Amino acid sequence: MSRKVSAWGRLAGSALVFAVLIWRLGTGPFLQGLRTIDGGALAAAAGIAVLTTVCYAWRWKIVAGGLGLDLSLRAAVAAYYRSLFLNATLPGGIVGDVHRGASHGREVSDVGHALRAVGWERFAGQVVQVLLTVVVLLAMPSPVQTFMPWVAIAVVVAVFGVFCIARARPGRTRSVWARLRSAAAGDIRDGLLARRAWPGIALASTLGVAGHAATFLIAARTAGVTAPPSRMLPIVLIALAAMMLPSLGAWGSREGVTAWVFGAAGLGAQRGVAAAVVYGVMVLVASLPGAAVLVMAWFRRSRPPGRTRSRRRERAAHA
Predict the structure, then answer these.
(1) What is the spatial distance between Cα 212 and Cα 185, in angstroms, rounded to a whole number?
(2) Which of 14, 92, 10 has the alpha carbon at shortest distance from 251?
């Protein structure tokens, strides 16, 4: 019941943002964004999406391997495309990730660790995105530059807290909190901060953020924004950060924040909404290979999938 309430709440939140934007700006910016979309922009988005999806799938493979789960890059790319499509079309923005983790878990007979691998993979990507955004907003002019020193301090404290959790060792108590803390510490150490893991995770996440930023810059240019990339980059990163908020495939939160930040930067709230609409359509089209993955899986459903054991369970069996 709580999941249904959460999903409907996010849908209602997105609808409310759209209602406010239409009330204040009219339907013109939305229609303008749809009219300006062309084949070149969609092709560029699809091409960039291939690179970012491979990077994110590689990141997932690294994290899963650190947690003792087998995952090939080919399977990871297909599953990640499917996840992106479901996230873009269903409320919440995480349905695809849950499906991705559960499917991988059934394949390796370890759903719990597979879901944790997906959760930590997404967490690591968001941490890198936040760090990159804070650095850029500290160094370059933006509507929020005045507040960035305080944000930077908060981020440093949060990262320090993560490192403290990772260094925690199992205690003598067996309370629920102690078990959760111990499990989280082990996952962070093995899946995220291990020497063989964190460089690849950081690189893949950075390339992914760069790909999304490039896609948004193309969307803004397609919508008629002529500001130079040096002025647009901080604005784009703020808009991308808004997509972390719960919503219907980022629709609503993206348009609302983009309208505000474009207006605050002197570029016009209408242009911001148009750019966000173009970006949303570009991302949706770029995720369509995920629909093909779903269709192919549906046709193969009659054949029982082979089941393998996770390396973690194999080690436990031989211990």
Answers:
(1) 30
(2) 14
The answer to whether 152 and 139 are in contact (CB under 8 A) is no
CA-CA distances (angstroms) from residue 291 to 18, 156, 287, 301? 26, 39, 8, 15
Structure tokens at 239: 């808009």
Q: What is the pTM of this model?
A: 0.86
Per-10-residue mean pLDDT of the chain, 319 residues long, equals: 57 72 83 90 96 97 94 95 90 83 92 93 94 93 89 90 75 68 84 91 96 96 91 93 71 83 91 92 94 85 54 55
Amino acid at 229: P
Cβ proximity of 65 and 71 under 8 Å: yes
Residues 296, 302: Cα–Cα separation, whole Å: 11
Calpha distance 222→274 (Å, rounded) = 9
Angle, helices 111-139/229-242, rounded to nearest 10 degrees: 140
Rounded-to-integer distance, Cα 154 and Cα 299, Å: 49
Q: Alpha-carbon distance 263 to 276, whole Å? A: 13
Report the half-sphere exposure of 107 (CA within 13 A, side-chain side).
17
Q: Is 283 exposed, middle or buried (0-12, 13-18, 19+ CB in 10 A)?
A: buried
Give me the pLDDT at residue 1, please. 47
Cα separation of 258 and 268, whole Å? 10
Answer yes or no: are the C-beta atoms of 242 and 253 closer than 8 Å.
yes
Q: Give the closest residue to 103 by CA, choosing from 111, 113, 94.
A: 111
Sign of CA dihedral 258, 263, 266, 271: positive
Q: CA torsion angle for 218, 223, 227, 233 (degrees, to 10)?
A: -40
DSSP character at residue 145: G
Do residues 60 and 80 touch, judged by C-beta distance below 8 A? yes
Which two three-digit tokens encode residue 90? 């269903």
**Looking at residue 147, what DSSP letter applies?**
G
> How far is 4 from 2, CA to CA, in rounded Å?
5
CA 171 vs CA 113, 161, 186, 233: distances in Å: 22, 18, 13, 46
Cβ–Cβ under 8 Å, residues 243 and 83? no
